[in-house]
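From the shared-data thread, chain only:
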Amino acid sequence: MSTEDAWFIAERLREILQSRHFNKDDFEGRPLKLSQAFCLLWQNKENGEVSGRQRSGRIANAAVLAVLLDLFALGKIEFEAQVKQWIALGRRREITYVKVIDPSPTGTFLDKALFSGILYNYSNTPDKPKTLEEWILQGSYLNPTCATQVLDSLVEAKIFGKTSVLFWKKYPTINPEPEAKLVKELRSIALQGQVADGYMWTLIKLLSDADTSLFGKRDLLSQHFSNEEFPRAKSCFTSLTFIESESRIDARQLQVAQELQVVNDQSKKGGVEEVAAVGPSCSPQEVNVVIKKEEQKKSF
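Structure, as C-alpha cells:
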C-alpha cells in the first residue's frame, strides 16, 4: 500500500508542474516553506497531534513531496521525466527522476529533512539519480521521518511546542499567528473568491490530495471551517485543484501521438521489442528519451 501511495503522490507532482496555476516564483518571500505550511495545517489544533507522521502513507508522502517542491523552488533540484514503452508487453510508463542542479546545502531544515540524502546519493552515483517514488518512500521511512524534521523546524521557530505522551509526540501550538494568517488566506480563497497564487494553490492541492486517503475521517482542510462552511469550501477546492481538462486532454493526445510514432517506427525497422516514446522535436536514444520543458519535451 505504501508503494501505491508513493505512486499516487508522484502522479500529483506531474499534475502540479503541468498546471497553469503553479508558479514557483510565488514561493519566494513567503515566511513559511511550503512543507512547513503543509505540516502547520496537518497538525490537529485541538490536541497537537500530527497523525501519520511516523509511517509511510499518503499524508506523510505528501509532506515529502512538499519538501521536494521547496527544493525545486530554490533551484536545488529538477524533475526529469523519461517515458519507457514496451511494445511486446503493451506497457508504457513515465518515470520521473530527481536530479541535483545545485549541490550546495540550503542551510535550512530542508537539508536534514531530505536534501542531505539527495546530495549523498549525488556525490556517490551522480549518473544514477533516484526516482521520485524512491525519494518519497525514503523520506517517509527515514528516522526521523521527513515530516518529523519539518515539524521540528516549526518547534525551532517557536511556532509549535513538542511534548511526549507515552510513545507519542505532540506538537501543541505556541505561536498561533502564522497558522492564523495561513488559515485566513485559505478561507478567503474558499469563501470569498480570493485568487490563489502558485504557493497557495500548491498547498491546497497537496492537502486535498492527502485528504483523499482519509475516507471520511477528519479531513486536513475541514478543521479550518465550520460544518456549515466546509461543503462550500470543499466544492471550491475541488474545482480549483481539479487538473484542468485541457491538461489531461493534451497529455492523452501526446500519449496517442507517441504510441502512433512508436508503432510507425517499429514497422519501418521490422519490429522492436522495447522502444522509447518520443515527444515533439525529440529523437530516440536507445530506450529512454529525456523530455525537456524548454524544448517542448516533458520535463520540469
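The two ends are 27 Å apart (CA to CA).
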